[in-house]
Amino acid sequence: MPRDPDYFRDKTILITGAGSGIGRATALVFAREGSNVVCADIDPEAAERTANQVIQLGARASFVECDVTVRAEVDAAVEQAVADFGRVDFELNAAGAALARKPFLEITEELWERTYALNVRGTFNGAQAILPHMLEKGGGVIVNIASVAARIGGAGNSVHYASSKGAVHTMTLGIGREFASRGVRCLSISPGLVDTPFHDNTPPEVLQGYAEQMPIGRMAQPEEIAETVLFACSDGASYLTADTIFVTGGLR
User: Which of 9, 105, 136, 140 has the fewest CB atoms within 10 Å, counting from its CB?
Assistant: First the structure.
């Protein structure tokens, strides 16, 4: 939590993947704190629903259709956020997915490329698009969603996803270290198993196997990850950059 209870009030966060899951939960947590929220998602109706929920909580919001793999659309989302609220203080790059669960020998080149386009290029686009604005304004915080899968490896069903999230973590380290002296913090959050639509197409036996590995005995709720994003962006985390926060219920 922030040291200053009004720290987030009237500040602005841009969230990719805001239409569901961790992105949506983060939008609502920041709304609770009085922030302006720009909801970007490839599904404009989902983005609009999240924006309306933010407004219902008494905060200000806008939404934009955005495919994070297309740089022009990410640039447009940043431009809209600045136009709507004057500045962007925080960015959460939450758009991402495994796209399909496959054993390693069944991962096609097409699946590999699509996964990297969404998870790695999408995060790269988000960070590179927002950085000039943050540097001009004197600072900001970029939070990328990585995954504990990068540490575990995704054996048997998602090496492509785990590898891409490892790239997100490495990219975060580089961004965080390069811009630390210029007022921009960049870090990632590496969740374990989170109860979101991300797992809608995951076979129940795979989910059960994951759940059995959790010392805490359950999946995380997206709101629990969102609260970690809030802390990472807060004045209470001012020395935190170029690192990842594992939120895994004890999974190693």
Answer: 105
